[in-house]
Amino acid sequence: MKLILFEDAVAFCDRTQSHLLHHPAEHNLLLGIQSALLRGSGAFPTPPDLLVVESAGEIQAVGTRTPPYNFVLSKVQDLGALDLMADYFHQASTSLSGVNSFVREAQAFAHVWQTVTGQASTLKMHLRIHQLIQVHPQADVQGYLRIATKRDRKQLLQWSEAFSLETFGDLEADIERILDLQIKRQDLYVWCDRKIVSMVAGRLSQPGGGRIGPVYTPPECRQRGYATACVSAVSQMLLDRGAQCCCLFTDITNPTSNHIYQTIGYKPVCDWHDYRFA
Known about the structure:
Layout: E1 2-6, H1 9-20, H2 28-39, E2 49-55, E3 58-65, E4 71-73, H3 81-91, E5 98-102, H4 103-117, E6 121-132, E7 144-147, H5 153-168, H6 175-185, E8 188-192, E9 196-206, E10 209-216, H7 226-240, E11 245-251, H8 255-264, E12 267-277
Parallel strand pairs: 4-5, 10-11
Antiparallel strand pairs: 1-2, 2-3, 3-4, 5-12, 6-11, 6-12, 7-8, 8-9, 9-10
């Protein structure tokens, strides 16, 4: 096996995209990152690490790190590929914050990383990838969907911070920059009922696919169907724009959100682990 490093995002996508599209729902995060890399315009503040491990011309693993975010891994054919990736980061004196991947791959990389560096890992979140092909009809909810604008920024920043604290237990990096980018690219939507009551990000992020998330409704506006209506409307919009499916992540410990998405038409695909390194 050999490790190949890419400095050019276009070359990296050309080499890996068809491989990732064998499992488009499972790889929706990596495909979304690829889409953002190709779009450019400030998607990531620092140059990414773009890694591929091959054996006899066949891809064994694909990995992407876009600092300050975790290392993201594809499905891995030969787990020995993870040794090459871990050695690369260790030799480069790279400080990894964590790894996001399928359960098998995430556990294996966390073990290899601890062996190489001595850094222990903690399972931060147990997630599940869902896929929707057709939106189920929903009961009418008062209000309407519109694109978020700069006028909404103050409120949406508060919601973004609240979402991060509620979901991850701390403030994730680059919240303001990401929010501004979503507003600029018109990837962020709000549900309005006299005032904005819910938000959802949605975008075409891969050939034939769309991604949903994050989704947030403030506590005082919950249990009124706003999030359901918002996600349903954005999902249908992405399908109408050419997506063959839409994907999103859920926290499996949150039964409310999992139930909401399944009533809309999202079906579980696979589980996903988010490990953080000490």
